[in-house]
Specification:
It contains five helices and 51 strands. By secondary structure, it is mainly β. The longest helix has 20 residues. It is globular.
């Protein structure tokens, strides 16, 4: 019997024992939805607790909850971040449908503190390595050009490292930038950057909820090694019409929402565009006014309540960037996603979500010059069908299970040229694949102190024809080629991904947790740059490129301090990674059809410890995070087959974030960042060849960029705040003390002494002030 079969038999046996225990006593069920009274928005992660009983549940991604209890009289407390808690008394002698509406929290600014019922992280939940952000938490954090950005905000959390200035990529617990699964309403986003990384693709005005998992990912997520960033769009106000927007230093945005039919259906449309290109047009220099540099994006959503048990959602995102130098060079890239979802309540304990998901990312390069006239096109496109169930078996068991299938189409690169061009038409082979998975998990409350979450994900990745697939020798040379017809299965990789985590509550203010998770990744990002760019391309696993596999173990200690005003979180992790990819020296990964010949494979490891101290109540709020970590790779053919630093290896990473409510009108904020410089390969020597200086490289990533640090300042002035209209001015100063952090370091011969080598540092930003005007009515 195979290990995979044994694992699933054990899991089903454990699930069966749990079901038997949970159904041993007859209980009644309270179920329904939790929503905002003002907007009708469903509330994710709202807490419903039974006073004095130690029982409770949280609402799911669509606001649905279910809790089963013996007959009796109970007092329920419903609460959510930023909303007034609500106490409900009821007599339970039958199944009850209870829909809860929570009102906005009213904060009174006192002389010393601001009272708040902001809900912190759960001590009893076995979930580890997870952080939830609300858009309100990102409002006052100063960022580049004053544009609120969820990707930049999560990089201030421990274990999540920025890929650098001008880059929206990030590294999580030693993983590469492509090892993060980024979802927008369940649709994968393959390139989450605008303007070469200065902005992210996510317009904060259209976002309701942001959840980041660094470890212990629930079984419904798969396909990436390091993290899951799950972003949910607003549903749209089904109570009243609302318009909001803003005008900033380089961009403007507008958000419109309202009911189609009050209480039953609503819409949301949110758009954003930069206008840097408008300033370029003002120049009298033709080499400037013919250039283009802008992006736009559009979020849209419709939802309709079909009845008491059915609801439909249709959401989409469309965004593109344009970078051009006259008619000589143009780069156009962007994402498009679409999600159609159907929620159905089969019973007061069984909730279903069915999703049809579309995702597309592509880029186009156009080059026109005297001898060259050609276009380059690359694309990755997905169709995804997902069916998921949540079975609220009892107040102690919540079972989640489902299946999903994704069809990937990849066009790595196609060159089309005119008759006068010196380039010939060329197309790298299209690649097709089918990624299937079945998963199940159970959150089990074994006792008042001990909680367990266990599950597994069985994934099967099938490589499909048509096309040629190769056999290589140890030097990367092709020794055999096999051709496959359209739809023919080349190879299937099957992997079991167990997930387990547990928590033990020590007392009312502290707990310890531990988790183990295995993840598998079959899509890989190919880049020959030290930073992510729009022209990086995705490739799928082949008969040579095997799935990447990671195993992560983590432990943590959690403590609430000073009457829950402060939260202390300490987590340590150790992660091993199989089938890691790096490049041969001098690799050409963009024009070579046999891309496997340019790659080398090996293993990796990452380990570290993360501290987070957070204050969420009072005039002064914010957090301090610190990460101490190490990330290494060992790949045959690189660094004499010894361990070497991964590019994203950083020993120290510190972030201090603070917000101060000065008075009813002014809110001040600041954040300070420090991290160890990235690992990088610098030349160790040089020699002359045919009157040309050649640099000599030895150890891969054996040097360091200079340490990075930066201070950002911000202030928000509330101009008006009335029931029908509010407005504010937001000021920010990025890199307040003008630190010239190195973006790149280049080596060249000194002009004064050609035998001397000098290092030239290039910095992107010094002082970047900005101001924006935001309104809502």
């Amino acid at each position: 019997m195979s290990n995979t079969v044994k694992t699933w038999l054990f899991f089903l046996l454990l699930l069966g024992v749990t079901v038997q225990q949970a159904t041993a006593q007859t209980r009644y069920t309270i179920s329904g939805s939790v929503r905002s009274k003002k907007s009708g928005e469903s509330l994710i992660g709202a807490s419903i607790t039974v006073q004095g009983k130690g029982a409770g549940v949280t609402s799911n991604d669509y606001g649905f909850y279910s809790i089963s209890l013996p007959a009796g009289k109970y007092t329920l407390l419903a609460s959510a971040v930023g909303l007034e808690p609500q106490t409900i008394e009821l007599q339970l002698d039958k199944n009850i449908t209870l829909n809860i509406l929570l009102e906005e929290e009213i904060k009174e600014l006192e002389d010393v503190t601001v009272t708040s019922s902001a809900k912190g992280r759960s001590l009893s939940s076995p979930q580890m390595g997870a952080e939830r952000l609300t858009i309100n938490e990102t409002k006052t954090i100063p960022v580049l050009f004053g544009e609120r950005d969820v990707l930049k905000t999560i990089q201030l959390l421990p274990g999540i490292k920025s890929a650098g200035d001008g880059n929206s990529g990030f590294f999580v617990r030693g993983g590469a930038a492509d090892q993060n699964l980024i979802l927008l309403d369940e649709a994968p986003v393959y390139n989450a950057s605008h303007l070469l990384g200065f902005f992210s693709t996510f317009n904060s005005d259209a976002i309701k909820d942001v959840m980041i998992y660094k470890g212990g990912m629930p079984a419904q997520y798969g396909g990436r090694l390091s993290s899951v960033l799950d972003i949910k769009m607003n549903d749209g106000n089904n109570q009243d019409y609302a318009v909001s927007g803003g005008i900033g230093a380089i961009s403007a945005k507008l958000n419109v929402e309202g009911p189609i039919q009050k209480d039953k259906s609503s819409f949301l449309v949110s758009g954003r565009r930069t206008y840097v290109d408008a300033f370029l047009k003002l120049s009298s220099d033709s080499t400037i006014n013919n250039n283009s540099l802008y992006f736009y994006d559009l979020n849209a959503k419709l939802n309709y309540q079909l009845g008491k048990k059915d609801r439909l959602f249709l959401s989409g995102y469309f965004g593109r960037d344009q970078l051009g130098v006259g008619e000589t060079f143009k780069l156009n890239w962007g994402n498009a996603t679409g999600t159609l979802r159907w929620n159905h309540i089969f019973s007061d304990k069984l909730f279903s979500n069915t999703s049809l998901i579309y995702s597309n990312y592509d880029y186009k390069i156009t080059i026109k010059s005297a001898a060259n006239d050609f276009k380059v096109f690359s694309q990755i496109k997905d169709w995804n069908l997902k069916q998921e169930f949540q079975w609220f078996l009892s107040s102690r068991n919540n079972i989640r299970f489902g299946v999903n299938a994704i069809h990937h189409t990849m066009r790595p690169g196609e060159i089309s040229s005119s008759d006068s061009s010196s380039f010939n038409d060329k197309a790298l082979q299209k690649r097709y694949s089918l990624e299937n998975a079945v998963y199940a998990a159970n959150n089990w409350k074994l006792s008042d102190n001990f909680n367990l979450s266990y599950g597994a994900r069985l994934s099967a990745f099938s490589i499909l024809g048509q096309g040629d697939f190769y056999t290589l020798d140890t030097d990367g040379k092709v020794i055999d080629t096999t051709s496959y017809k359209k739809g023919e299965v080349v190879k299937t990789y099957v992997n079991i991904e167990p997930r387990v985590s547990a928590s033990y509550t020590l007392n009312n203010s502290s707990s310890v947790k531990a988790s183990y998770v295995r993840n598998v990744q079959n899509l890989h990002l190919i880049s020959n740059s030290t930073t992510s760019t729009p022209t990086d391309k995705w490739i799928a696993s082949t008969n040579i490129i095997k799935p990447e596999i990671s195993d992560q173990v983590s432990v943590g200690y959690y403590k609430n301090l000073a009457g829950n005003k402060y939260e202390l979180t300490v987590e340590a992790y150790y992660k091993t990674m199989q089938n890691q990819i790096d490049y041969r020296d001098g690799a050409d990964v963009f024009s070579n059809d046999v891309i496997e010949s340019q790659l080398l494979f090996g293993k990796g490891r990452a380990y570290g410890i993360e501290w987070l101290m957070k204050k969420k109540v009072g005039r002064l709020s914010g957090w301090v995070s610190y990460t101490l970590s190490k990330t290494e790779r060992k790949i045959n053919g690189i660094n004499n087959n010894e361990w070497y630093n991964a590019r994203q290896d950083r020993t120290h990473d510190i972030a201090i974030v603070a917000t101060y409510q000065l008075n009813k009108k002014w809110t001040l904020s600041a954040n300070w960042i420090f991290y160890t410089g990235d690992a990088v390969s610098f030349p160790s020597g040089k020699y002359r060849l045919d009157d040309r200086m050649v640099y000599y490289y030895t150890e891969r990533n054996g040097y360091r960029m200079p340490n990075y640090h930066r201070l950002d300042l911000g202030a928000v002035l509330q101009l008006k705040k009335k029931k029908k209209f509010s407005s504010e001015l937001a000021f920010s100063l990025y890199n307040a003390y003008g630190r010239e952090n190195a973006y790149i370091i280049e080596f060249r011969n000194s002009k004064d002494n050609p035998n001397k080598t000098e290092a030239v540092r290039t910095a992107l930003f010094k002082f970047i002030p900005s101001v924006s005007y935001n309104f809502k009515f």
